[in-house]
Design goal:
single chain, 251 residues, mainly alpha, 2 domains, two-stranded antiparallel ribbon, 2 strands, 55% helix
Length: 251
């Protein structure tokens, strides 16, 4: 039977969700007996599973030796993030079943826009959730994917601004560098202020300090931050050789 004519999600005999289009989603989500089994309900449960999995990486909960206060905020963060993404998915584009060949069309990622900010820990996390939405809702338009990216960041800022304080500093410093040092974002013909320039210079030093700390003790940071520093070393090697004037303790 054509994939267009059959349902995407179903339950196994042991009540695990099976994804007929993407096997990587199969046998990862358990649905208790008595719960709703509609296609949308199964889709949402798979989405929430991925949201929780990625948030654990972002918050470094997998590295925690024992439960801490972040474990207590995780459930509410997952529900909030999931609710936002589901709302975007349902309102912006109806789900449809595509053939495997149609789904092989590559999705343009936000990284192509360039700039350090696009490679920061929070942006990489948002990109991962963006890819999950593209998969579960059958490759929506790039405009919609951009709204997913922005919604993820705004939800993180609202729900987890304090637990993710260091990652938001990283993101904001990178944004300042892109804007005032590399000229990414300003309207053509408009200059930058002295204050903006000075903040960019300070941001370069802060990012270099952070990268040095991550290289020294990668086990202390999120996997996303390790990826960020890897991208810095690849595309902006100047940060690896930059001589900072602040000791790490002053960060």
């Amino acid at each position: 039977m054509s994939l267009r004519l059959r349902l995407r999600f179903r339950l196994s005999k042991n009540r695990y969700v099976i994804d007929n289009l993407n096997p990587k989603n199969s046998f990862r989500v358990y649905i208790p007996s008595g719960c709703e089994e509609s296609q949308e309900c199964l889709r949402i449960n798979v989405l929430l599973f991925h949201v929780q999995r990625l948030l654990k990486d972002l918050l470094r909960l997998k590295q925690a030796s024992k439960p801490n206060q972040l474990w207590r905020v995780l459930p509410s963060a997952v529900v909030t993030m999931g609710s936002v993404l589901v709302a975007i998915g349902e309102v912006s584009f109806p789900t449809r079943v595509l053939s495997r060949r149609q789904r092989e069309i590559p999705i343009r990622k936000r990284l192509e826009e360039g700039g350090i900010q696009a490679f920061t820990s929070l942006s990489l996390f948002a990109n991962d959730l963006q890819a999950i939405i593209a998969d579960l809702y059958d490759n929506p338009s790039c405009v919609t994917l951009g709204s997913v990216h922005n919604a993820v960041l705004e939800t993180l800022r609202a729900c987890l601004s304090e637990p993710l304080r260091d990652l938001w500093r990283e993101y904001d410093w990178a944004t300042s560098i892109d804007h005032s040092w590399y000229g990414i974002g300003p309207i053509p013909g408009y200059g930058i202020s002295t204050e903006e320039y000075e903040r960019a210079v300070e941001g370069i030093e802060e990012i270099a300090l952070r990268a040095n700390a991550v290289r020294a003790k990668p086990e202390k940071v999120s996997p996303y931050t390790i990826q960020f520093v890897g991208y810095l070393d690849k595309y902006w090697p100047v940060f690896k050789t930059f001589k900072t004037h602040k000791p790490v303790a002053e960060r």
